Amino acid sequence: MSDWVLLLGGSTGHGAATAKRLAKDGYGIIAFHFDRGEAKKIAEETIAEVDHLSEGRCHYYNTNAASEETMNTFIPQIKEITSGSPLKLLLHSIAFGTTTNFFGAKPVTQRQMDMTIHVMGNSLLYWTQKLYGEGLLANGSRIMGLTSEGNYVALEGYGPVSVAKVAMEAIIRQIGWELGEFGITANAIQAGVTPTRALTKITEGWEAWVENTKKRNPMRRTTTPEDVAGTISMLLKPEADFINCSIIYCDGGESRSGTF
User: Fold this and answer.
1) 134-156, pLDDT tens digit by residue?
2) Does the pTM of the predicted model rise above 0.85?
3) How far is CA 175 from CA 16, 26, 90, 142, 163, in A?
4) What is the CATH number of the domain that holds 245?
5) SS3 call for 218
């Protein structure tokens, strides 16, 4: 087992916080992001910090991680970076999809649905298949994806992402079921409402979401990316070897405390 982790989406939000936390924990960071414009500047700041924290054991690639061409191109490079040793973690933290309703003025199209489900759900399966085939996932490796309360609650503009999250949860459950006998576990982390750049893209009323969340959350605050990063860090420890095919809640009890 190597001390390298692979993050799909590691430049902002949960992915960035996880990269920083795991770099502090001593892991080397391999990450993909797909940023342009202002987001690219934010990504560059994250990369510089992760590079410092990891003492140079940091490889970031600004390209579409959901593309099969990207997988085929970079997996050999990943194998070279780890010297062929399996990754400790494959984290799916890609927050890119269509946020719109199924009906109304701009109903979601088939192309938008297909893209969202592939990028935010199915792509985790294809990465896992290819990495496993190359021996980059083995006994002790963890596979994780980020989900949300929107996986079972209908929300304004969240329909396509909700479908993608449900698909990802099913993929994670099946991966853990099939690969568990080899010591490879797969789990989803369900974060609470988190004020990240991705949240602002879901609805113009995101600020109201944040305020309502603070009122209904038992701990009277929103989830932070650092909360999620800490949970992921904890789940990499040997004590978590038997946690598999599960949804791990990191929301302060928010999902058990009423509706939006």
Assistant:
1) 999 999 999 999 998 888 888 88
2) yes
3) 25, 27, 12, 11, 18
4) 3.40.50.720
5) coil
